[in-house]
Amino acid sequence: MNKKILFLLLFLTPAVFPQLGDFLLKTSGNQLYMQVYGETVDPFAPFDAKNSIQKVKKLTKPVVTDKKLTVNANPVDFKIFKSSVKGLVSFTVYYSGKKESYLIHLKFENENSFKNLLSFTGTLFQEVKIKNGPTGVTYRKGSYAYDLTGTGTKAPGDVSVLIDSRPGKNEAFIGIIADPASYVSCVDFNYPKIEVDLKAMSEQKIFEYYNNMASELYELVVVAQEYYKKPKAQNGGGNSFEGFVIPDNMKETQNCIFGIDAVSVGEIILTATTKLDIIGQDGKTPLKVRFVTRPDDMQPEVVN
């Protein structure tokens, strides 16, 4: 997606609908956040941590209960936090072990706020095919960094979003797991029963990821061409790609790992392999693209 369009989508929408600024999902770096009454909170912060939802003073008076729920046939102690952003959305946050954010259930009162969520998740989360499930329910997943236990160190992990847009619903479930089985197994979560194929993606989504990966790999192509043209006395190739090494700060991005498939005097083949759980067209191995790079031109190719 064009970066300018994405910027407009994520940052100008609240200006069109001022009330939406009271509740939004947003990202910073590789972290997922919620904006609640102008405050930025971490939806996966431990219960009552300094940057958690509990610290937002303008929320409606919360209801907090402890309850033992059965998840995957195992009893789990939960702390359940319920509150709402007046006129927009009510939410229930389930903390497993009474501390770690497990699942957030959002129920939207405002149609524009719900549409904003659809735009956000549709842009930044990968669609996953549902094999069995009610019409109007969609499932997406992504990888974001979070710190469930409050150690101060955030690590990347799966985040899933189920959107329930059936008539009269306008709901969403955000959790820290890629497989919905754990949610479906607990009746108290009121999570629609679905089955998903975690490796399946629509052709359009694969195409979008190919484009993103190729865009990131292109920056490395330019560096390789500069190396070719730079004299050896200046640590270049002296009209050769041989000896080119991927700079340490360009070996990977948030989405890809880069590599060299082959190199000769006049040509180098650079590759990008996804770091995400995205399977390519062969249905077995990760998405991969490459650029056949020459001194003054390059040819992108789909490997898988």
What are its keywords?
single chain, 304 residues, alpha+beta, 2 domains, 9-stranded antiparallel beta sheet, 4-stranded antiparallel beta sheet, 4 helices, 16 strands, 19% helix, disordered N terminus
Tell me what the structure shows:
By secondary structure, the protein is an alpha+beta fold. The protein folds into two domains: 3-197, no CATH class; 203-302. It is built from four helices and 16 strands. It has helices at residues 3-16, 111-124, 181-184, 203-229, and strands at 23-28, 31-36, 39-41, 63-71, 74-85, 89-96, 100-108, 126-132, 137-146, 155-164, 171-175, 195-197, 256-263, 268-274, 288-293, 298-302. A nine-stranded antiparallel beta sheet has the order 4-5-6-7-11-10-9-8-12. Strands 13-14-15-16 form a four-stranded antiparallel beta sheet, covered by helices on one side. Strand 5 and strand 6 form a beta hairpin. Helix 1 runs antiparallel to helix 2. The longest helix is centred in the C-terminal third of the chain and has 27 residues, at 203-229. The protein is elongated. 31% of the residues are buried. The model is unreliable at 1-18 (pLDDT under 50).
Secondary structure blueprint with pairings:
Blueprint: H1 3-16, E1 23-28, E2 31-36, E3 39-41, E4 63-71, E5 74-85, E6 89-96, E7 100-108, H2 111-124, E8 126-132, E9 137-146, E10 155-164, E11 171-175, H3 181-184, E12 195-197, H4 203-229, E13 256-263, E14 268-274, E15 288-293, E16 298-302
Antiparallel strand pairs: 1-2, 2-3, 4-5, 5-6, 6-7, 7-11, 8-9, 8-12, 9-10, 10-11, 13-14, 14-15, 15-16
Helix pairs in contact: 1-2
